[in-house]
Amino acid sequence: MSSTTPLHLAAEIGGPPRYDPGHYTGLARLAEHGALDFVTLGDSFARPGPDALAVLSRVAPATGRIGLVPTVTTTHTEPFHVSSAVATLDWVSRGRAGWQADVSTTGAEARLFGRRPAAPADELWREAGDSAEVGARLWDSWEDDAEIRDVATGRFIDRDKLHCIDFEGASFSVRGPAIVPRPPQGRPVTVVDGTSGPARETAARHADVVLVRATTPDQAAGARTDLRRRAAAYGRDPGALRVLVALTVDLGDAETAPEPGLESGPPLAAGGSYYRGGPVDLAELITRWHRGGAADGFHLTPITPGRDLERIVNGTVALLQHRSLFRTFYPGGTLREHLGLARPANRYAFEGGRA
To answer: What pLDDT does 115 receive?
Structure first.
């Protein structure tokens, strides 16, 4: 069955560590020129380099529309601090922030912190889900009109519109409220790579955008169906879940044919299934998969960001735009608007009977 839903496109701008902010700003601006929904910047405790969330906070004032999604590891970190940092990114970007939740599974990474040993993936992803839940509750802990800023009376905030979240989980407890006012988007966009089993359950329960690795359209469509079924079981609207195929792309030789169907492409641990070929053939693949209803879009990880992202934007995306398959401008200003996602209502305002 063909898809009539809007096509969503995102790109990774990471690669070998760089310490020049202009490098990341230039890549984000290039992606913005192509009207991509968002860029991601990968990160982990196992690699050297600057902190992804801090880098994109630097990029935010130099961009105007592109969504900014750093990877944030929830293992060995405090969910209160994570929620504050992501909310801050949403404020400095004026509503363009997201975060990609990830976990840390190795003993070497655990020893960097010295708090606890490494744990199984299923346990860590349950903890990541708790971190996502805490983040959502903390972002709601300030109602939208909680700030008064009344100089005459000296009142900065209406304390009746601040809420303790009182979360109790297996690994931590958080009382709240947040120290940062509710972000412009209400809740910044949560992204999870839901390819693996433990991560998929967390994605279905908490994510707005799910990345999946797939080598055929049928495999991608099956993953999306499974994710939507699980989301519905948690009481969520399955139609509000955006599922993007994660694809690592090598556009170094524009004359090289793509791997047939991707089945024979070598798997790359950090980026999804592998595509090698030219920008035109990549546009054909995206068109075929999306029109066939395989996914809501694609998350593209260039092998060489400085080279391949330019070919994605000025080649692949330009062709999709010429064919009226992808937008040529941003209809809104926030990442949620790019993705066609509503701004969430504040759960505590509803509970208090004021909404």
So the answer is: 86
